[in-house]
Amino acid sequence: MPKQTFFNLPEKKRERIINAALEEFSENLFSKASINKIVEKAKIPKGSFYQYFKNKKDLYKYILDQIFQLKIKYISDSLKNRNSSDFFESFEAMIEAGFKLTLDYPLYAKIGQNFMLEDRKFVSEITEEYSSQGENFVFSLLKKAQDNGEIYEHIDLKMVSFLISKISIFILDYIKQNNESMDYENIKKILNDFMFIIKNGIRRGKNDKD
């Protein structure tokens, strides 16, 4: 997280630094992003950068945290405006909310896409910090659905919330191995296919139609 000196800056200067970082991280993977370019775009001395942030990763994690918090707000607002408590409809609404965020903030979307292209060790390191929050959020939705009789009573909700919260990493591996498109429409389709399996399993019913 940024040092207090960063938060002591005038708002316009903070915005200039963040906007320069957003531009750089949206154009490059983390490993290729340049502090020199960020300070040049932000019009600050390089020495000042280290008065505000410990290093490049410190700034990068701050940017990702801002995106994560905004995404949680989008999802919370989306769920708040719905009447249904159905878990699967709620999950679809969460996907839609995430998709709306990418349309409203294209630079965030690009940073998110670049993040998914980083190596797995780096992705795991970063996402580990948010996994417990994601699991708790999904668990609360599942528990509500189980209490309403939508989900079998014997299902281990802790295990299911773990699997669902880790889905972004699984999908990332799937996309990389199969050279799938990284555009959000395709990611959305893959997420929906995954939820179909969670909801219906893989065994075809005797009365199912083609």
Automatic annotation (TrEMBL):
Per UniProt, residues of the HTH tetR-type domain are 11-71
| Record bears the keyword Nuclease | no
The record's section on SUPFAM superfamilies has:
Homeodomain-like, Tetracyclin repressor-like, C-terminal domain
Official protein name in the record: TetR/AcrR family transcriptional regulator
UniProtKB keywords: DNA-binding
Superkingdom of the source species: Bacteria
Q: What is the lineage of its organism?
A: Bacteria, Thermotogati, Thermotogota, Thermotogae, Petrotogales
**What organism does the record attribute this protein to?**
Marinitoga aeolica
User: Which ranges of the sequence are annotated as binding DNA?
Assistant: 34-53
- Pfam families attached to this UniProt entry: TetR_N
> Which InterPro entries is this protein grouped with?
Homeodomain-like_sf, HTH-type_Tx_Regulator, HTH_TetR, Tet_transcr_reg_TetR-rel_C_sf
